[in-house]
Amino acid sequence: MRKQSGAQVFRITGARQGLAEDVRGRQRRYVISMSIRTLSVIAAAVLWNVERHVAFVALVLGILLPYISVVIANAGRENAPSLPSTFVPAPSRPILPPPPVREEAAEPVPEGGAGPTRGGPNAPYGQQN
Fold first, then answer.
1. CA-wise closest residue to 41 among 61, 26, 21
2. Of these four, 30, 40, 49, 70, which has the most CB atoms within 10 Å of its CB?
3. How many Å apart are CA 30 and CA 15, to the nearest integer?
């Protein structure tokens, strides 16, 4: 099977990029920064008698850039991309409506009026709810 150049590749896993790709990217960044350093040192040498302020800035850039380049090149591999969460929150329970109100009374009320009821404060011992 032939590899298609320029085809769009979709990452379907949480895997890091390959080690060879990582090293190649670091080398590319290092070469670019060292090229900028070389150009700044040459600019400092050319501009030293013409524009000393610009030459001094270019010289400082040429001195500091190797350290910064090495730190960036040796920073290590990228962090693994975050994987999708496997935690699924529990569905929230709907609020239950209040129970329906019944029209009929639970116990018939005696016609005699208000007398001692079972389990009330005047009930004999042992008949409380």
1. 61
2. 40
3. 25
d(CA 15, CA 83): 9
Integer Cα distance of 120 and 105 in angstroms: 19
The pLDDT score that the predictor gives to residue 70 is 84
Query: In Å, how far are 19, 101, 103, 117, 118 from 114, measured between CA atoms?
Result: 91, 24, 22, 8, 12
Residue closest to 13 by CA, chosen among 81, 86, 79, 87:
81
Helix axes 19-47, 52-73, angle to 10 degrees: 170
The arithmetic mean of pLDDT across residues 65-74, rounded, is: 84
Q: What gap in Å lies between CA 17 and CA 15, rounded to an integer?
A: 7
- Give pLDDT tens digits for 77-92: 666 556 555 666 777 7
SS3 content of the chain, % helix, strand, coil (to 5): 40, 0, 60
